[in-house]
Sequence to fold (111 residues):
Amino acid sequence: MIIEHLRRMLSRDYKEIGVNKHGEYHVEYKGLYPDMILGNHGIVLSLLEVETAGSISEKQADRWVTLSGLGVKLILMIPKDMKVKVTDLLWAKGLMDKVSIGTYEISIKMP
Fold:
């Protein structure tokens, strides 16, 4: 749900968007499969990972270290209420200046 929304939103800025939904491996960048690979004119500009409250961990932070070392910008999309935890992990891994953070909130309203 979030990945498809991001794909539509980012399609204005990026003409080439590769998507790997959870458990799928369709597009790779240097042997890795981030959630989204964003590019223009055959050049990869950014990698994007969508995280949930349950996926944010020390182990996942190690993956961020690997992805951030590939030479392109890494963007993390995280739940809004997890920003402090993710920021702490990024500082601990020495990534705070190498990773951009975006947040999302899911709001369900019933009649």
Remarks:
- Residues 23 and 47 are 17 Å apart (CA to CA).
